Amino acid sequence: MTITVNGKLLDFAEHINVVSLLKYLKIKPTGVAVAINNQIIFKDDWLSASLNDNDNVDVFQVVAGG
Amino acid sequence: MLTKEMYQRYSRQLLVEQFDETAQQRLHNASVLIIGAGGLGCAAAQYLAGSGVGHLLIMDHDNVDLSNLQRQPLYREADVGKNKAESAARQLLTLNSEIRISPLVYQATPALLEALMPVVDIILDCTDNLPTRLMINEAAYYFDKPLFIGAASGNLAQFIALSPRQRHGCYACLYSPDQHTGNNCLTQGILGPVVAIAGNYQALAALYYLSNINTPEWGQLHVFDGMKMQWSQYAIPKRANCSICGDR
Q1: Is residue B179 part of a domain?
Q2: Cβ distance of A66 and B239 shorter than 8 Å
Q3: Which residues of A touch B41 (CB under 8 A)?
Q4: Minimal Cα distance from B130: which residue of A?
Q5: C-alpha distance from B22 to closest chain A C-alpha (Å)
Q6: Residue B224 placed within a domain
Q7: Which residues of B15-51 are buried (b: 16+ CB within 10 A; e: fewer)?
Q8: Among A23, B56, B214, B246, which lies 20 to 30 A Cα-Cα from B93?
Q9: B28 within some domain
Q10: CATH code of B47's domain
């Protein structure tokens, strides 16, 4: 399965979800937001949000300052 | 009916094809609550005042600090130590004395928002932390008011336009309270133009909505990366069990 994460192609032998993707990328889940195919995935749904072949994933910082 | 002086003052925006006397009159009749008079609030407020929005209510309990002057262009060195809402109001009235500006020297609370929401048309969230933003989101949805949210930190800016009448998700469908990291301008720094970009997005969307010449793209998170000089855009779906917008 090939997915694109922040513009980079990654290959995975098995299906993964958002939580396992962040773990693989060594990204701490606190303070980041995730979108799959340009749609926000709420944090509570990261475990159930499985990724599919050719998905486009964006991981970016939560910004609340001003 | 616009006066001769108003025609002259607003002539350049009246020349914009979609913007006419009716649009200007709509701005003149509008009231906007700006919560936070930091980098976002300064950027947004000066363009809303210049454009002739009739009543700006500017809320901030904080005082101007010397470190604010780098990115908060409504303030002068002489304002250091003075309240931001009052200093911003003074400066904005020198820009446009034809409009009303109400400085509100308060920290946002649910009770205060409850009192203010009924008298304003829209809200600009120009605050600097997640818990306050979630509180403003809840109040805006309860009182059925469009909410224009800006945020910035480091090299990143974000913008969202939310309408309780649309079927997109709200701010509580975007970020969970436990995603609050404490990252802000103090911990991550901020470049002045980056925060101004978010504030200007808020002002532009507000002008379009209030003048009724364009419909904001509701329910989209716009993310600006200053290092790449690029925007990205993400849809915010409504969560079925959201306590704020779920049953709408």
Answers
A1: yes
A2: no
A3: 66
A4: A64
A5: 33
A6: yes
A7: eeeebeeebbbbbbebbbbbbbbbbbbbbbbbbbbbb
A8: B214
A9: yes
A10: 3.40.50.720
Cβ neighbours of A39 in B, within 8 Å: 234-235, 237
Question: Euclidean distance between the first and final Cα of chain A, in Å?
Answer: 39
Q: Which residues of B touch A35 (CB under 8 A)?
A: 234
pLDDT of chain B, 248 residues: tens digit per residue: 899 999 999 999 999 999 999 999 999 999 999 999 999 999 999 999 999 999 999 999 999 999 999 999 999 999 999 999 999 999 999 999 999 999 999 999 999 999 999 999 999 999 999 999 999 999 999 999 999 999 999 999 999 999 999 999 999 999 999 887 766 666 779 999 999 999 999 999 999 999 999 999 999 999 999 999 999 999 999 998 999 998 76
**CATH number 3.40.605.10 given to A2-61:** no
Asked if residue B247 is part of any domain, the answer here is no
B185 is catalytic: yes
By residue range, what is the domain housing residue B51?
A: 4-235
In this structure, the strands spanning A32-36 and A39-41 are antiparallel
A28 and chain B in contact, CB less than 8 A: no
Cα first-last separation, chain B: 38
Specify the pairing of strand B156-162 against strand B100-104.
unpaired
A65 vs B174, B179, B185: nearest CB: B185
